[in-house]
Amino acid sequence: MKNKILEEFDSIILDSSQIKYLDDAIDEAELLNQFHIRAFVNGNEREYLFYEVLEVTQRTRPKTESTTNNKLILVENNDWIDKYVQKRKGSYSIEIKDFSLFKHYIFYIRDYEFNILAEGYNTINKFFEIFRKYESMKNLIR
Amino acid sequence: MKAEAVFPFLTEESKMYRSKTVEYYHVSKKALTILDVYDKNQEKSLVLGIIFHDVKKLNQKLKTQLLYDEFGIDQDDPMFECLYSIRNEKNTQTFLLSLGDNVAIIKAESVELVTEGVYAVG
Question: What is the pLDDT of residues B34-72, one digit of tens each?
Fold first, then answer.
């Protein structure tokens, strides 16, 4: 698999991940999902916000696989998007004009492997909380 | 194998603007989502928290015929309303949560309903 390393990390710990689905009947541009990864990078909060997300997989890698290299990479082939376009045929879906805008990212954080098919991502140096803003909900997920 | 509704007495409320969030936490291996539902047993609307315990996988995929076939769901089905599950290996279930034309697929040990202290956010 050909790919490009976007970021490598000496110290990274996953805090949380988030699938966010938006369905706004008024603004069709808002129909696609978001995927967030929150991690402590060298002890500091960093949130990765992937936007216009088509598909995501999150799994824990078996111990036998190398779990030492923490990195975010961009896969430089179209295998996943080609497969995705094929699968979409005949299914009810919102229209997408240009599939070439989407990219395949892989994020390795210790035991975790995330595969993300999205248009792009931004980062912020602070966690954007939704559920954990509330003390009662924070207690539920402890 | 056929996926079935986990809580057949719940239906999702329809709203003009909808958003759903599924959040996974590394420390506890739990995932949480909040839904606006109508409870047919209690005959009232509720804000409901669903907690997934010991999450192994969390995917977001497009609803396709392939997926319907895999989970034994009819295409006339109201798009996996609320939460569906299928039991696979011992101690794990695969949960399906509808997200518009996508679905969240959550492989976890069990699921728990919470109505106290949850708010319609996210």
Answer: 988 888 899 999 899 999 999 999 999 988 877 888 888
Q: Domain ranges in chain A?
A: 3-140
Q: How many domains does chain B have?
A: 1
| Cβ–Cβ gap B16/A25 under 8 Å | yes
Distance CA A68, CA A64 (A): 11
State the Cα–Cα distance between residues B30 and A142, nearest whole angstrom: 8
Interface ipTM above 0.85: yes
B119 part of a folded domain: no
Count A/B contacts: CB-CB distance under 8 Å: 126
| A29 touches B at CB < 8 Å | no
**Are B31 and B106 in contact, with CB atoms under 8 Å apart?**
yes
**Is residue B121 in a domain?**
no
Phi–psi pair at A136, nearest 5 degrees: -65, -35
Is residue B14 within 8 Å of residue A105, measured between CB atoms? no
* Model confidence, pTM: 0.90
* Helix H or strand E segment including A137: helix A135-140
Q: Which domain holds residue B11?
A: 4-112
Within an 8 Å CB–CB cutoff, is residue A57 touching chain B?
yes
Whether B93 is covered by a domain: the verdict is: yes
